[in-house]
Write a structure and sequence with these properties.
Length: about 350
């Protein structure tokens, strides 16, 4: 499924099979299910992943933030990026966390210099990918850099999430400095990506937990709503789309999120009590929802999994504006046989519930 067809989903004039995609959050799942990727170059690998995990042509080139390996062992690696954020990554089982932040107090923030968002060298890979994949009619989206959101970007790069949550409530001045520093930088990088031809920008902003939001609707409206709105307006200025990614329960924010002008929201996960039926009924005519599938698919029986997938398609396609995707990526617990069954069910219902 090409970018041209996916554009029809957003603009509500597409007819055909329902688009679906999945992804590998855990590299162990990718190694287990697609071992051939180890012998492919990056572009060949992207094509192969798209073939194996859906019917969409989708690629995510990123603006380059430089990092250095400062320590490495048999099962882990510690890297430090150019602003001083250290990240510990474990291979098996896969997880990562920020080990050291560059900002310990407000004075540190005044001394911090973020990478030059206008440095053309940081966009070389993006330009190469745009040239290669646009000729193949891929949907080209950029998350800019890891932790690219306006909320997540702060706690991924500058200070711990617990400290940020307290600061948002008790120190309005400092909180605005943190959010504005990362936000203005993200918007500048975003505009440079749009000028180079990406079709959409994605803000990775996990704003909720399983049962509740990370912060109040008032905090969202004061700090993050303005940034999301500016990014949506920036995308639309260039004829592109704004895509908001947020795991967690974010229903209390939804009215304001829709007001930003967002075009796509994912992953609307059932594990986070994001009810696809309610979301479609209330907002389905104004935004595309991408997601709906449970992250617990690997542990379901064949019968339960088949029924779950059909239910998601049946609910999602009502009124249009739906792309099927899982809320957590392909599980490392999936065997090749289980993965084939999972993808065959998705393919079956993407055809049965095709847009007509």
């Amino acid at each position: 499924m090409s970018y041209t067809q996916l554009k029809g989903i957003i603009e509500r004039n597409y007819k055909g099979v329902v688009p679906y995609r999945d992804f590998f959050m855990d590299p162990n799942a990718q190694d287990n299910l697609l071992p051939e990727l180890k012998t492919m170059d990056a572009k060949e690998g992207i094509v192969r992943i798209n073939e194996a995990t859906g019917n969409m042509k989708f690629v995510e080139p990123c603006w380059v933030q430089k990092s250095t390996v400062i320590e490495e062992g048999n099962n882990y690696r510690i890297t430090e990026n150019e602003i001083g954020t250290q990240i510990y990554t474990q291979t098996k089982p896969f997880f990562y966390h920020v080990r050291k932040y560059p900002v310990r107090c407000e004075d540190d923030l005044t001394k911090l210099r973020l990478p030059d968002p206008d440095d053309p060298e940081r966009y070389r890979d993006v330009e190469e990918y745009i040239e290669y994949f646009s000729s193949r009619d891929y949907w080209i989206e950029s998350k800019e850099v890891p932790g690219s959101g306006f909320f997540s970007g702060v706690w991924y790069n500058l200070i711990p999430v617990e400290e940020l949550l307290v600061t948002l409530v008790i120190d309005n001045n400092y909180a605005h400095k943190l959010v504005d520093m990362m936000g203005e930088h993200r918007l500048r990088v975003g505009e440079n990506l749009l000028k180079r031809g990406v079709h959409s920008l994605c803000a990775n902003d996990d704003m909720g937990c399983t049962n509740h939001t990370w912060f109040s609707p008032d905090v969202y409206e004061e700090y993050f709503f303005p940034m999301h709105k500016r990014m949506a307006e920036l995308c639309h200025k260039y004829g592109a789309y704004f895509h908001l990614h947020s795991h967690g329960y974010i229903m209390p924010f939804m009215d304001k999120i829709i007001e930003t002008g967002v075009d796509i929201i994912d992953p609307v996960g059932p594990g986070d009590h994001m009810d696809l039926k309610i979301l479609k009924e209330k907002y389905g005519d104004r935004v595309v929802f991408m997601g709906g599938l449970s992250k617990s698919s690997a542990s379901m029986s064949d019968e339960v999994l088949d029924k779950h997938i059909e239910s998601v398609f049946r609910t999602g396609v009502e009124g249009g504006g739906f792309i099927c995707m899982s809320e957590g990526g392909v599980s490392p617990d999936m065997s090749p046989e289980r993965f084939d069954f999972y993808m065959n069910c998705i393919k079956k219902y993407s055809e049965k519930y095709a847009y007509r």
